[in-house]
Specification:
Elements: H1 14-17, H2 25-28, E1 41-45, H3 51-56, E2 62-67, H4 70-77, E3 86-90, E4 103-109, H5 118-127, E5 129-140, E6 146-148, H6 150-164, H7 173-183, E7 191-200, H8 203-219, H9 227-242, E8 247-258
Parallel strand pairs: 1-2, 1-4, 2-3, 4-5
Antiparallel strand pairs: 5-8, 6-8, 7-8
Helix pairs in contact: 6-9, 8-9
Length: 259
Amino acid sequence: MPNDQAYYKSGFDKSVSDTHAWRTVSNAVPFVIPYLNKKGRLLDVGSGPGTISKDFANYVAEVVGVEPTQELVDLAASQPDLPKSVTFQYGSAYNLPFEDNSFDFVHASQVVVHLEKPIEALKEMERVCKPGGYVFVKDTDLKSKVIYPEKYASLLTNAVDSRIKNSSTSPIAGRQLKERALAAGYKVDKLKYSSSVWCISSYEERHEWAERFCSRLTKTKESNLEGEQLENVLRAYREWSEDESALMILIHGELVYRV
């Protein structure tokens, strides 16, 4: 049986979920917007801190977030001004607690990338989606990340690599997404694959990114960095955030599947 807690296997830490809490539908998954309608019911798989789930209320009639970390269920449910149409509950991506054909839309952003058994989860997502509905999946492709100037690239890339070492996170999940969907039984003629880019470039974007990840690195042991190694990475993040020529580019795979 795959581990539901593969991402938070060392225990929940809010400094980790805080690095995800800036995300909304428009800034994280805009590719889904053309398919949504105000009559639909949407399941957000691996809803995390729930900011995307909350924003989905602007596009559909009902949103259910499901998450295998109870602390995140509670955190998401405590968001200010949470619409009544948005609820959160505990549940596994490998055994979604819903009947077949329960949702018009099923969504997972930056979730499949971390799973031990991604194909099993993709099958479950299709199971709970109604015929004629849509499954939306977005995964980052960490191996294609660009950090500039080059003098920061090695340290900051190594920080990410050390974080995912010995974990189920795939560094090439974005490019694997289509293949994984086909392995899960998705029909190629009903599948649309695209890609998009996050570009962290402005002063505000660089500083927010660096602040979030410096906090995450200092408050958790997930990277296995300590002492001088850790200080070097923190210094690189801070210098990168102040460098006017600096930027980071993250490529993502995006999948739309018509059930």
